[in-house]
Amino acid sequence: MKHQITLGVGPVSFRIGSDWHGPIAALDALYHDYPRPGFADYSVRLEAISPWRRWIRPSIRVRGDYWLPDASPLPRAQGLLAAEMGMNLQVALGHRRHLLIHAAVVARGDRAILMSGVSGAGKSTLALMLSQRGWRFLGDEFAMIDPETGWVHPFPRPVSLKNESLELIPDEYRVGPLLAGTPKGDVRHVAPPTAAIAAMDEPARPALLVFPRFGFPSALGGLAASETFVRLTQASTNYVAMGEAGFRTLVRLRGRIPAVALDYPDGATGVAAVEALWDAL
Amino acid sequence: MTAAQTLVEVLRDPARAMAIDLTRWTELLTVARAETLAGTLAHRLEGLAVPDAVAKALAEARIDAAEARRTALWEANRIAKALRPLAHPVVLLKGTAFAAAGLAAGQGRGIGDCDILLPKPMLDHAEKLLVDAGWQWIKSDPYDDLYYRRWMHELPPLIHAERGRMVDVHHTILPLTARQKPDAQALIADAVPLDGGLAVLDHADMIVHAAAHLFADGELAGGLRNLWDIHALIEERGLEGLEARAARHGLSSTVDRALRLSHALYGTSVPRRCRHLTTTDRLYRRRLMARDGWGRERHTALRTAFYIRSHLIRMPLPLLSRHLWIKWRKGKAASASG
User: Which residues contact A214 (CB under 8 A, 6 or more apart)?
Assistant: First the structure.
């Protein structure tokens, strides 16, 4: 394609091609500290929905090795969001090297907390806030569990913060442009701390599993092994596709680490609760 | 050399993969995925010293293929169980058949729907048994449903409510509207039984079916994979009886075209008369290779021509006109209401 870039994030590499320069320049800036590998596992295309829509009311269609036919096009100004969506989709639909669980992951040394939840549960915000308090940021989208070792591999993509979370962005973090009026509201991407990117090939051992829920009165509950298992299958995008390896990996994860459901009213309370859980381990 | 050409070259001669640089590998993998040949490529390259990053991606394609095979065989098992009251073997077609029969053509192959063949008089009963066992119709539209039942060579597709897998129940291998009339009774009579109430087509019939599917029933999208099926079938078990069998089904020229193109692209061992491409074959080859290193389809005009052709060969012009007219009016009505 006319413009392109390759990006390495943890164990995965992407090639993003675009009919426009803008989205590639935005990726180049946001992913400043990430490697530019020669080979890419997945290709993403940001293409005009028709030849003339490259120029007139430019509209981006996201395609790639894997894609969903019903995804709506985005205006050119939201090219970075389109690229991020495309990259997410490749991993969610194509990745088989690790069991994927929708979770944010932070670590102290080589021991990690997995925070799994649906969109809006606050896992990204919690991970970003913890990264300011000395925790290593391993990712806010997918926990990648190695079927051989059971360890979680970093996949430290930039965090996408939405709407009211935007004010939480720390000053010293590298950010992308403010994308107003996207299907998800106002969005801004925040690159993880340089140290987290530099350590993106160092896996960690899962030590605690938290299911956070933002916007509820503080509450803490233990989870039965059976419920943890079902929640994890629901949070995984490739559990079925991984077959027996996925099942074995999930059983081992569930059996090894404590799991708690955590309701919290605001970010600061959530962070304090997570750190208290950690200290009690 | 285009990425599609590289893919064909490497499938044909895996040793050529050693000369590929990393950028080219990215393109090769992308085009292989777009042509649903990634698993096949990964199997062909197994054991070769490819770059580490590439080896990891190929290993994933093998995981996918193994899972596709496992689910396809389980689905065939479930279908055979549901259809046991027919007291007739369920003849598997295409990918599921290759996997069930343990053929080289099945190695690494992606498998989508489960295609099966049954004697036409049993179709109504089979449909009832499948619906009783949890399959549902997808086509809710009465015209589509009627069209399938009157003109197609299969029941309207059924999907299993829990597993989400589709089954296509055929009673022959080409639409009833097509000019060629394959001998469906012979296909079923000569099928080779397997365990578990299943069967697969006789070797020569498998090749005839693959050729019919590729050239007499479609627009050639994903044709490189279908042509690879033909190549792998021939390389594993030869050409014995193929000429006579193709003639019996009225598909001699279709099979010969498949042999010529398979030889030209993959180097298949074929009779001397099939070792040169005709002018028309070259258009087919161009259509088969119409994909770039980003996985995008190329040659819009040529693809459109093959798309129109796919309709013309499926049905006579008056019927086609009526069909397109109804489809167009329905499309307009749908966009006006939606």
Answer: A120, A121, A122, A125, A264, A270
Question: Per-domain residue ranges for chain A?
Answer: 3-94, 99-157+192-279
Sketch the domain layout of chain B as residue ranges. Answer: 69-337
Which of A15, A45, A242 lies nearest to residue B26, judging by beta carbons? A15
Chain B residues 296-325 with a CB less than 8 Å from chain A: 296
* Tokens matching residue B260: 């010529």
Closest Cβ opposite residue B22 in set A1, A38, A43: A38
Higher-pLDDT residue of B243, A166: B243
- Is B284 exposed, middle or buried, given 0-12, 13-18 or 19+ CB atoms closer than 10 A? buried
Q: Give B69-337's CATH code, choosing from 3.40.50.1580, 3.30.70.260, 3.40.720.10, 3.30.460.40.
A: 3.30.460.40
How confident is the prediction for chain A on average, in pLDDT? 94
Residue A233: both structure tokens together? 């299958």
- pLDDT for res B335: 60
The confidence score (pLDDT) of residue B336 equals 56
pLDDT in tens, B112-165: 899 999 999 999 999 999 999 999 988 677 777 777 777 778 888 999 999 999
Of the residues A96, A97, A240, A248, the best mutation for testing chain B's interface (the one with the most B CB atoms within 10 Å of its CB) is: A96
What residue has token string 């989208």?
A141
- Higher pLDDT: A53 or B286? It is B286
How many Å apart are CA A48 and CA A58, to the nearest integer?
7
* More reliable by pLDDT, B29 or B139: B29
* Pairing mode, strands B114-117 and B166-170: parallel
Fold assignment, A99-157+192-279? Phosphoenolpyruvate Carboxykinase; domain 3 (3.90.228)
Residues of chain A above pLDDT 70, percent: 100
Give the DSSP H or E segment for A8: strand A3-9
Residue A209's nearest CA partner among A173, A258, A279, A142 is: A258
